[in-house]
Amino acid sequence: MELVVIVRGGGSKTDLFYLNNEAIARLGIRKMNYKIIPLNVGNFEALPKQVCMYRMYREITYEAPCIMWYIQGTKHNIIVDLGPPDPKQCLENRDIVIKRTEGQEPENALRSAGLSPEDVRTVIMTHLHWDHAQGFHIFKNAKFIIQRKEIEYATTPLPCHHYLYYEKNVGKPQFVDYLDKIKIIDGDYQVEEGVNCVYIPSHTPGSQGVLVKTEKGSYFIAGDAVGLFESWDTTPHVPSGIFNNLEQYYESMEKIERIADFVLPGHDMKIFDNSIYP
Ligand SMILES: [Zn+2]
């Protein structure tokens, strides 16, 4: 049995009904029963922890996963974020060790969740940092949803952030070759009923998270705005060590507090304590 709220007229009057599944289907009421599956597409061997937690843990590194998220139950088989380039490229272009097993190759990771890349119709990019934005080519039938401000900044970043978008030996970020497949948005945006892009600068100027309504509350895929569970659980919340405007960053965290029941961070291995959310 489900409790259904019917709003009549101008929204001033509501009725409550208990309906069984058959009645729900007959009335064409769509049940939002989304699940979120985190897919590990490679690990930083040793990421300085201060990258995720500003001014803390300056001497500590940790093994940090790169996460692709699959929102199961969506019409468009929505994916959030891609991942880093292959480990060889990371080493050659960045001197960074990314460890990736065969099962963590993005296509294989998707298949392990029962999805083929061709089935994906929408990819939401939280932002365009290099470790989130490689592998556009495997999603042949998808459009990519990116904030306008992120595209603008990724093409002309401040000198200190240039390395976050450009590979050493490559003249442009990868998304530039896929502009015809990109849907540019400005601010908050509904992708499907119950799946919303939420604009949350300022890990980058065009950062966005994805709010997913589930039967157990609203889950927020935060990208790198929240790096670790610890970043969010600490009072007050701790911003990433990479940002453009700290004042705006704190406003974004207040926005997340207002809308989300659960926050899923961008680079925390503890995410994989659960294979599916909720
Ligand atoms: Zn980032």
Structural category is alpha/beta
User: What number of structural domains do the residues give?
Assistant: 2
Q: CATH topology of the largest domain, what is it called?
A: Metallo-beta-lactamase, Chain A
Give the C-alpha Rg.
Answer: 19 Å
SS elements, strand count = 14
Which ions and ligands are bound to the chains? zinc ion
Percent in helix: 10-25%
Tell me the fraction of residues in β-strands, as a range: 25-35%
Q: What distinguishing features does this structure have?
A:
2 domains, seven-stranded mixed sheet, 7 helices, binds zinc ion, 278 residues, 19% helix
Task: Describe the 3D structure.
This protein has 278 residues and is an alpha/beta fold. It folds into 2 domains: 1-31, no CATH class; 32-273, Ribonuclease Z/Hydroxyacylglutathione hydrolase-like (Metallo-beta-lactamase, Chain A, 4-Layer Sandwich). It is built from 7 helices and 14 strands. The protein has helices at residues 21-26, 87-94, 106-112, 148-155, 162-165, 229-233, 246-259, and strands at 2-8, 13-19, 35-48, 61-72, 78-80, 98-99, 122-124, 143-147, 182-185, 189-192, 195-199, 208-214, 217-221, 262-264. The chain has a 7-stranded mixed beta sheet. The model has no long low-confidence stretch (mean pLDDT 93). Zinc ion binds next to loops.
